[in-house]
Inverse folding.
């Protein structure tokens, strides 16, 4: 047994040196001045050819507005709130997902401690009332997601203020009380007017406050910029009441009212992207627009004109690179031509001229009702067959509770193997250093352990091991740095993965006969 332990460690020393020499030789050959990225160089130990680790964004939305998903109702005890959230995170992990998109600002309120906006009434039952005993839900969510190796994307509604259907009075610190001049009543909701420059500045300040204070992985916006059209009692569409801001800021621009509204949103999105990255250069920014940019784009598509009705030029944001990923809400079936899922998916990926990621949103809530589970499985299949679609996001986490068939299909078939998120190379293209790896012999098996070797701390570990000629993959959070393996395991591979999805060169060990000479 001791001889076997010496073999594992000896071969690791030899192969690590061989890999380093191979890297140096390649650099000298091509004249590079840096270590090649892992995706450009495969340098396993002799005789070891582990399969590629799957790359796929597997996200799920967790809405908090109107208690659609979490918490299940307002005013739950802290213990109940935390237990519900932990169950959602555990379920995502069990289904081999790798990201949760948590709504932290549903209506100009906060699911976190804020000096700018009041506590959400969807959390405690009363706007402005903190949880008691005190805890910070966002801090709790970030810590628990990361402990499981899940990304946490903080989801903001940038301009929604409050539902008029809520009878309770808003808190004195709510923007509807502090800055009523920025707020517009439209249909059943109150909205911040995107044409008010101070309102834009206010929302940006809210977002950057979270970016600075929390270890989130991304800022995420949904499809609400200007509101979806609503009708009056006579069935006529209402126009957004922005006459005041139009007269002060828009009328003399020479733009039409529609173009001016679009410019307001364009400039806001561009500024959010720039200032997020000024604070944290590796922070991701994602937007989930309505799934149809304009009817007839492509020419078989019909439906709401988001460009004209919502003043959201999401194609421009994607083409200009003002977001790191776009998640168009493709909430329709494959076989319905006016809103065909694969037709729209292909169109959106064609717009990604700067190679930003496209992660379509899928309406998993329809499974078990209007849709068979096979519809979602087929849609995920289409994302995998489209080279520019790097994954998907499911709407929403409640779908798991509604359909055992969906859970079984995802866990047993669709997400059969774990996956790393795609690389965000434009944010950071430098891979972490290859970790150190050792294997110790235990009674009846082995214990593999590893650690970082460079200045950059690993965010995740991609572990692979071979048994009976078959490879298994596990994605482990940074805090897990050892694992016990059966005696039948004959090879182990570990890569360090950073927050941008870059993976290190592999550290490799293989069991074999003792080699003399060192």
């Amino acid at each position: 047994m001791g001889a076997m332990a010496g073999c594992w460690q000896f071969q690791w020393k030899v192969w690590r040196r061989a890999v380093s020499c191979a890297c140096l030789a390649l650099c000298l050959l091509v004249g590079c001045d840096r270590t090649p990225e892992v995706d450009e160089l495969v340098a396993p130990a002799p005789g070891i050819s582990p399969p590629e680790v799957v790359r796929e964004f597997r996200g799920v939305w967790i809405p908090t507005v109107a208690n659609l998903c979490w918490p299940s109702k307002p005013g739950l005890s802290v213990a109940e709130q935390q237990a519900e959230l932990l169950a959602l995170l555990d379920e995502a992990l069990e289904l081999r997902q790798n990201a949760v998109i948590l709504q932290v600002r549903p209506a100009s309120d906060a699911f976190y401690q804020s000096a700018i906006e009041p506590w959400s009434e969807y959390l405690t039952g009363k706007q402005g009332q903190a949880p008691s005993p005190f805890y910070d839900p966002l801090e709790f969510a970030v810590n628990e997601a990361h402990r499981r190796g899940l990304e946490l994307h903080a989801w903001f509604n940038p301009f929604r203020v409050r539902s008029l259907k809520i009878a309770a009075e808003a808190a004195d610190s709510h923007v509807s009380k502090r800055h009523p001049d920025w707020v517009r009543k439209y249909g059943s909701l109150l909205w911040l007017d995107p044409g008010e420059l101070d309102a834009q500045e206010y929302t940006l300040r809210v977002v950057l406050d979270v970016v600075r204070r929390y270890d989130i992985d991304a800022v995420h916006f949904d499809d609400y910029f200007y509101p979806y059209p609503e009708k009056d009692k006579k069935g006529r569409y209402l126009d957004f009441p922005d006459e005041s801001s139009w007269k002060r800021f828009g009328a003399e621009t020479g733009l039409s009212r529609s173009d001016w509204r679009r410019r307001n949103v364009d400039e806001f999105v561009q500024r959010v992207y720039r200032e997020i990255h000024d604070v944290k250069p590796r922070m991701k920014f994602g937007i989930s627009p309505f799934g149809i940019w304009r009817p007839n784009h492509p020419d078989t598509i019909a439906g709401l004109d988001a460009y004209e009705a919502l003043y959201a030029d999401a194609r421009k944001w994607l083409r200009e690179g003002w977001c790191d990923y776009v998640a168009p809400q493709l909430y329709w079936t494959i076989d319905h031509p006016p809103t065909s899922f694969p037709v729209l998916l292909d169109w959106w990926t064609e717009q990604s001229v700067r190679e930003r990621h496209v992660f379509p949103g899928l309406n998993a809530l329809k499974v078990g009702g209007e849709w068979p589970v096979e519809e979602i499985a087929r849609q995920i299949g289409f994302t995998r067959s489209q080279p520019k679609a790097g994954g998907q996001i499911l709407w929403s986490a409640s779908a798991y509770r509604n359909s055992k068939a969906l859970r079984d299909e995802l866990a047993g078939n669709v997400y059969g193997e774990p996956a790393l998120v795609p690389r965000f190379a434009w944010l950071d293209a430098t891979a972490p250093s290859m970790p150190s790896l050792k294997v110790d012999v235990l009674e009846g098996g082995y214990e593999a352990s590893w650690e970082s070797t460079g200045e950059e701390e690993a965010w995740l570990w991609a572990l692979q091991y071979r048994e009976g000629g078959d490879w298994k993959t596990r994605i482990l959070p940074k805090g897990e740095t050892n694992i016990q393996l059966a005696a039948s395991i004959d090879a182990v591979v570990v890569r360090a993965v950073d927050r941008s999805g870059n993976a290190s060169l592999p550290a490799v060990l293989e069991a074999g006969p003792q080699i003399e000479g060192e």
Q: What stands out?
A: The longest strand covers residues 489-497. The longest helix spans residues 2-30. The chain has two domains: 2-52+431-510, 57-414. The chain has 14 helices and 19 strands.
